[in-house]
Amino acid sequence: MHHDDRVLIDYRTSDDAGVYRLDGAHALVQTVDFFTPIVDDPFAYGQIAAANALSDVYAMGGRPLTALAIAAFPKEAERSILHEIFAGGLDKLREAGVALLGGHTVQDPEIKFGYAITGDVDPARVLANAGARPGDALILTKPIGTGIIATALKFGRAPQPAIDAATRSMAALNKAAAAVLGRAAPGHVHACTDITGFGLIGHGSEVAIASGCTLEIHAGRVPLLDGARALVHGNIPGGARTNREHFALGVSVAPGVEADLIDLLYDPQTSGGLLIAVAEPDAAPLAAALEANGVLASPIGRAVAPGTARITVL
Fold first, then answer.
1. Neighbouring C-beta atoms of residue 278, cutoff 10 Å
2. DSSP readout, 136-184?
3. How many CA atoms lie within 13 A of 220 on its CB side?
């Protein structure tokens, strides 16, 4: 396989985006993400799609700069709905300070929407899956449960407060969290990823594999969206089952951990928060800085020496 020394991160490490070095002080961060509607409100759907795509750049320690829209719509789709989707996306791009350069649309039986995002990052300050060290504290910046709530919404079983909580969380940018990480002293934050389709266990497993360690996650400390736990029964999405099939062999669960909490740890997220591995002495100051900037900072576990499992749930 051809190797380019300017490629710092690519698909082989399961990171959130690729990184391409331009020179000693600048590198490009590139990603693409799109999906079918997850909420009924088209404006909110556009916001969430944009926040989700931008999150990959934030998770790498980068600053998003430009966006190209990617959209698929049925020929008979109402123009007012399409307008609202694009307007919602543009609203989030503006909040992020990102320039929309254009995009591409195709006809498709099912609506799909998202963006290709380009950003920049200091090559010396790239945050990646690899790098977590035994003893690191793990911090999560958003509650989980969006997949279960979205599934309940699809079948008319989700109460409005749960829908509202999930929508707010998914539409929230990880911009403030990334800014705090960018101000941390070099070397204090060892690894970072955002929690999306593979769920907390899946993306945590990728960090564990890339870093050569085991992640201990305390299920009772993981923040949950309001109403998510009450909806677990009967609303587990197909993606959660796929995540369990793919990652369960590398997961050890301590006796007494409740089954519904395990289901939530496998739940696929849309526009989830950042999972941060930070040196233990720096964890409390980092969490305080995140909270001071309006970002949830939940200590959910730690990295330990590699064992028989990639993830240990306590």
1. 26
2. -EEEE-S-B-HHHHHHHHHTT---HHHHHHHHHHHHS-SHHHHHHHHHS
3. 5
- The DSSP symbol for 87 reads H
Place of tokens 């911009």: 175
Q: Is the dihedral of CA 196, 53, 72, 70 positive or negative?
A: negative
Q: Is the pLDDT of residue 72 over 90?
A: yes
Supply the pLDDT for residue 3: 78
* Amino acid occupying residue 29: V
pLDDT tens digit sequence for 239-256: 999 999 999 999 999 999
Q: Which tokens in the block code for residue 182?
A: 């960018």
- The Cα–Cα gap between 138 and 16 comes to 18
Average pLDDT of the segment spanning 190-195: 97
Question: Structure tokens of 12?
Answer: 């082989």
pTM of the model: 0.96
Rounded distance between C-alpha atoms, residue 245 and residue 2, angstroms: 33
Three-state DSSP at 237 gives: coil
pLDDT tens readout for residues 170-187: 999 999 999 999 999 888
Nearest Cα residue to 49 out of 63, 70, 66: 70
For the segment 39-56, the average pLDDT, to the nearest whole number, is 98
Distance CA 217, CA 314 (A): 6
